[in-house]
Sequence to fold (119 residues):
Amino acid sequence: EVNADGSLDLLAFRQSVVQSNPAILNSPALVECLPLLAEATFAQPPSAEDEVELQDNILIVAQCLRDEGIDVPDPEFSNGIRAAMGAMIQQAGGADSRVQQIFETCAESVFGGTNAGRR
Fold:
């Protein structure tokens, strides 16, 4: 299993290996490879450019919301990107199904339908 930060969840990996084949615990290959896997990661920390691009994209989402008639200010990023997004959604009236649909449309247009990354 992979953690949210891209590193391996070594405990879950060990448990799944042992559950599927208990004899593997004595395998020389496993003994040799586990220390290497402990430091493995599949994600890189976001660069400053990535953060700026994400902030720019969130500002575009805010403008899209305004263009659709939803009154939201530009997000404030001083408490982090997640906090800025949460505050923007809350200020937009996030529980309203119309607002949710408009937000999804705006986010999809900016993030390419994944809502998880930048274009």
